[in-house]
Amino acid sequence: MIEFKNVDKYYGKYHALTDINLQVQQGEVVVVIGPSGSGKSTLIRTINGLEEIESGQLIVNGMDLADKKADLNELRKNVGMVFQHFNLYANKTVIENIMLAPRLVLKRDEAENKKIALRLLDTVGLAEKADAYPKQLSGGQKQRVAIARSLAMKPKVLLFDEPTSALDPEMIDDVLNVMKSIAKQGDMTLVVVTHEMGFAREVADRVIFFDQGQVVEDDPAEEFFKQP
Ligand code: ADP
Ligand code: ADP
C-alpha cells in the first residue's frame, strides 16, 4: 500500500529524510513518534505528495511519487490528511466543508453526498453542528469536522499530523476516541504522527521511532510496549 525504498529528502542543504525504507500494508495502523524537528511531519507529507522526494522510490497505492509526473489529484482521492491546525474553510458551514471535495472531485450525487456527510457528522458526535461555521466551534470540534471531511472521500489511506497537539487538554479525548474507532474498523490504512502513547498502545499495529530524519525503530506495537 505504502512503500519507501531508499528515500531521501532535502530542504536546501538540510537533509530532512535519510534513506527511508518502510512498508505499510493495507489496513495497518502505524504510529510515528520521535523528537520535535526529527522529520515526522516531512515523512507523512511525502505520502500524499505535499513534499517531493529527491531520490529513492515511494509507491503509494500503486503510484510512484518519485515520478514528477505523478497525478497528485488522483493520489489524494485515496490518501486523506488531517492536520494539526484543521485547515477548514472559514466561510463555509460544517456540512459544506464536508461535502465540498466529494462534490468537486468525485462528482458525488448531491443527495447521496448530503446523506454521507450527515452520517459522518453523527459518527464524530457533531450532528447538531451541520449548519455552524468553523469559528463557532471549539478546537476539538473543528478537528472532528476535519476528520469527517477526510472520511467523506472514503480514502484508502488516512494520514494524521499531530491532530491533537493544538488542542486544549480537555478536548483531546473526544478526538482520540473518533480516531480509535476509525482504527478499530480495520479497513483503512492509518499513519499517525502523535505524542499520544495511550492511543498507540490501544490501536497501533506498529510503532516507528524517528530521529534525525531516520527510522530508528520499527516494531510491532506489542513488542514496542514490552520494552523497558
Ligand atoms: P517534526 O514533524 O518531527 O517536528 P518536521 O518534518 O516538521 O519535523 O521538520 C524536520 C526538520 O525540517 C526541521 O528541522 C524543520 O525545521 C525542517 N523543515 C521542515 N519543513 C521545512 C521547510 N519547508 N523548509 C525548510 N526546512 C524545513
Ligand atoms: P508544525 O509543527 O505545525 O508542522 P512547523 O513550524 O514545524 O509547524 O511548520 C510550519 C510550516 O513551516 C510547515 O509548512 C513547514 O514545512 C514549514 N517550515 C518548518 N520549518 C521550516 C524551516 N526551517 N524553513 C522553512 N519552512 C519551515
TrEMBL record:
Keywords associated with the record: ATP-binding, Nucleotide-binding, Transport
Q: Name one GO molecular function term.
A: ABC-type amino acid transporter activity
Per its UniProt record, what Gene3D superfamilies does this chain match?
P-loop containing nucleotide triphosphate hydrolases
Q: Which domain of life is it from?
A: Bacteria
| SUPFAM superfamilies listed in its UniProt record | P-loop containing nucleoside triphosphate hydrolases (SSF52540)
What sequence ranges are listed for the domain ABC transporter? 2-228
Query: Which InterPro entries does the record match to this protein?
Result: AAA+_ATPase, ABC_ATPase_HisP-typ, ABC_transporter-like_ATP-bd, ABC_transporter-like_CS, MetN_ABC_transporter-like, P-loop_NTPase
Which protein family is it in? Belongs to the ABC transporter superfamily.
Q: Under which name does UniProt file this protein?
A: Amino acid ABC transporter ATP-binding protein
Please report the organism this UniProt entry assigns to the protein: Ligilactobacillus ubinensis
Lineage start: Bacteria, Bacillati, Bacillota, Bacilli, Lactobacillales
